[in-house]
């Protein structure tokens, strides 16, 4: 097995100039693992940003096919990591080995999908408006547009997906695909995992001849602030808490040169249960929904944290079974003690609210998280009480009963922005409640029907985004191929000769990509 | 001629609750014109934002063809405005009638181009990933994505294009096309113009059955701040000064819910003169460049404010002729006294700098702007002196002489972000200076060869954007059809039945648009 050095990854080399050390912990026992990491010094943070900046001019200009080869090779290196690697991830996160193996496949699949996007070529956004020398009153000159990478991107991964949303996760893959070198801030919850993955990325970079500095990783608490403020950094990708994400947004906005931040933060993912569906399959919904709430110990951004139904006999029956099922769910170990502490704090706030009632769950105590179910008065949603708006990260959910269709709409209207919004409905519900869809479109990035939001498919059509505070910019997504758009900007070439144009814009269309030529999409060469 | 009431436009009606009045002025004489405007009260600002919010759910869901009809009708109403209208614009801005007539055509053409974009349908960003029930280990569910308007947009127009970048200008057209109602802050430099244009928009809204509140306009100083802070506003478009744009960005970032701002601000638009071109046609370049610097009294965002050449006999000869041509240029009236004062301040700073030399131009005095040419020592660029980085809005330019190719690259490297970067070059220059292109790509949104940046074509391939401080977000453009992207966000539908999907995503492809289906662009129906 590869040794874990604990040194920062800067410009293709390892660096450990600092004197502060961080310890990797066993998530289940809290015991120290035999891995120690050296916090990056301020100079090392700067050096990492500058290494990325040095790599940028060369890296962004590589043919997209070369970057695709790099991503494919990272995927192969990840897939080749041994069982010891899986064991380390499990120890650092308390997640089961099958989950980690599945997440690894998802992560390498994600890298391969971005490689496909690079080969497909639509990310270039190629547009050509040919010269019209004969146009009156003024001739039109030749104008062509395509997109280039923004520059070095700082990426902050999440604790809950130590692979798919971390070191070689979606933000890193999207940035590297876009032609942007990355400086990754290793998550303190899985530093040994991060080191193994970073080493895999560097092996891939070496095998495919990428410039030193294409990927860098730093360890430490607070080093991210200096990173986001570094003038070389041109964009930020973040997955984590509302507090952490908002702090980065504020820092980025306050720079001499403000930069875009895509932060995926807080979502309670409302699930609306419609009457005919409850009548027909209320018991099954109760079973499925409780399984979704506790899946992965509820540690998903898309965990269903709010369940809404209309007062009725079938809703009461559903609620009884849902509470019973939640009572049945075993305690689970969370990602780390910080996550558990924050779960306990969230539960305490719900217990303390006079208009929130505890429905199910053993008293929270010990080292594991116990699933919990609450019922809140609808007035909390109607009055915009902040308690219901921020997610309680963990295996808990809150039920709200509304009086009727009209109150349901008012309650939904009071919600903040969400990653997902789900309807559980039969065909006859669809007929009666069609007016919910436009309302949910305004609230969420992804609308589900008769499914549970905890699965996030990696594909072209996925949106893992949504209005604030789900994310800091509703125009982006951090899962799916559209994620690359966050890190690209358009450049226009006016009257440039073919030899000086990027490949994507040359007359002969050497890349064979679809282009918008004089307003029409075509793969044809330009005469 | 239509009377000019001077009341705010809120929710399809006129409103004048305030007691503060603003006067329209004759730009040439400074005299009061017989038009008085009532500043919006704080309550009226809120009412305008709320009117836009009320219109949003209905307006965004209209078929794109209906919004296209609205834009076409605004264009027709603009084109139908009478000679009195042109006379008012000329009096308020001191711009000549031919320019205003041309700008009107550009503005109505821009609206019609966005109508074409709506009919073409690529703005929907339709993506379909069909279900794969047979996939192992997990089946894939049907996922579809398209884009919707962000919500009400606050638009701040520019003084220098009272039509094309103002009330019915590019930002308004892009927002309305995207399905976003607009609250426009009337520019204090052309309020009577704004009123006539706003009335034309409202006539078009009425003729095409648009919801009240689809377009609103408020008058006043400082009312924009309250507007940007209003919770209903979901995005901002701005064209103007760096100071003004940055203030709006900071306000938007500090909101409880931060919102995106696209601010087009400051650019000095470097023009690099390469040796073979100077040798072959230095005199012609001197003539053309001086004409570009003084065009429209230099009141363009893309005015060439920095001219760079390599020390040589031909550069000295060019400089001599360029200075002579600049000396020949007559004084011109600026848009308003504020613009003139700011021009005078900019010139004074250049005159005061010990390493800046005055090359041409009569002493600045009186009510008109006199064209000026300066030469700055290259050390100002190499050391990043702020004086050269911010534009002097008006008919002035600064020349910098560099020692050689290497110093040229260092000087360009020191530039901030730009809207444009121009090379004047012959084929043999292209061979020797190919390494400038990637450098300029990193600095600017539009690269020109053998042209002058002051013309900005409205088309699919245009980028009127660029890295900060040219704009607040290099990923956008405020001219050209890509401008619509700033105001759209993606929404994903998971497992939705055909009846509930937006038209753009239905199986049969009723809109007949190009869609990305399972990774392939096609207009075919989905089976």
Automatic annotation (TrEMBL), chains A, B:
Secretion signal span: none
Key word Cell division present: no
SUPFAM superfamilies xref list: ALDH-like
Ranges of residues in domain Aldehyde dehydrogenase: 36-455
Catalytic activity: 2,5-dioxopentanoate + NAD(+) + H2O = 2-oxoglutarate + NADH + 2 H(+); 2,5-dioxopentanoate + NADP(+) + H2O = 2-oxoglutarate + NADPH + 2 H(+)
Recorded GO MF terms: 2,5-dioxovalerate dehydrogenase (NADP+) activity
Family matches, as CDD domains: ALDH_KGSADH
UniProt keyword Oxidoreductase present: yes
Highest taxon above the source species: Bacteria
EC numbers, comma separated: 1.2.1.26
Alphabetic keyword roster: Oxidoreductase
Entry's family note: Belongs to the aldehyde dehydrogenase family.
Protein name: 2,5-dioxovalerate dehydrogenase
Species of the source: Pseudomonas aeruginosa (strain ATCC 15692 / DSM 22644 / CIP 104116 / JCM 14847 / LMG 12228 / 1C / PRS 101 / PAO1)
Organism lineage string: Bacteria, Pseudomonadati, Pseudomonadota, Gammaproteobacteria, Pseudomonadales
